[in-house]
Amino acid sequence: MRDLVRKANTKRAVEVGTSTGYSGIWIALGLKETGGRLVTLEIDKGRHDVAVANFKAVGVDGLIDARLGDALAEIPKVAGPLDFAFIDAAKDQYLKYYELILPKMRKGGAIVAHNVKSHPEPMRDFLTRIRTDPKVRTEIVTPGQQGFSVSWVK
Ligand SMILES: C[S@@+](CC[C@H](N)C(=O)[O-])C[C@H]1O[C@@H](n2cnc3c(N)ncnc32)[C@H](O)[C@@H]1O
Fold first, then answer.
1. What pTM does this model have?
2. Over the stretch 69-101, which tens digit does the pLDDT of each residue have?
3. Lowest CB count within 10 Å: 14, 42, 68, 81, which one?
4. How far is CA 102 from CA 45, 75, 126, 130, 150, in A?
């Protein structure tokens, strides 16, 4: 994640599904090197609060705008252009997140999605789209068993 943030020379990143902040911290470590910032979205207040505390404890809170709310309502409010997006929330909503994020992406940016190997069924429409959408070039990487898609925007 950190390497991809660097590769995309990320100034603006969005994360869909903060949970308690683990991936957000890794994204932020990449952003320290690129001089970028992250907006991360979480619908669950308990997890959002823990993430905010974790970002502070690790010292990356200055790089992260953690927003509480439904990503489907919040993504349209995130300012673009975006260089990096990480999708890791409700698996059956991945296509909706993707459609909201794609128009905000700059060319050369990356849209990364988690669990593409472990949860292919609920996100089948999303997987078909990223494999066939002429606007992106998608590769699947499996550093663990869960699988990530990385869609580079053309
Ligand atoms: C797998 S966890 C995210 C893990 C996190 N990205 C990490 O790697 O540390 C998925 C999170 O998405 C959140 N979520 C689910 N639907 C959402 C929505 N519509 N908007 C925002 N967050 C949502 C869940 O509450 C949950 O905390």
1. 0.98
2. 999 999 999 999 999 999 999 999 999 999 999
3. 81
4. 27, 11, 12, 11, 13
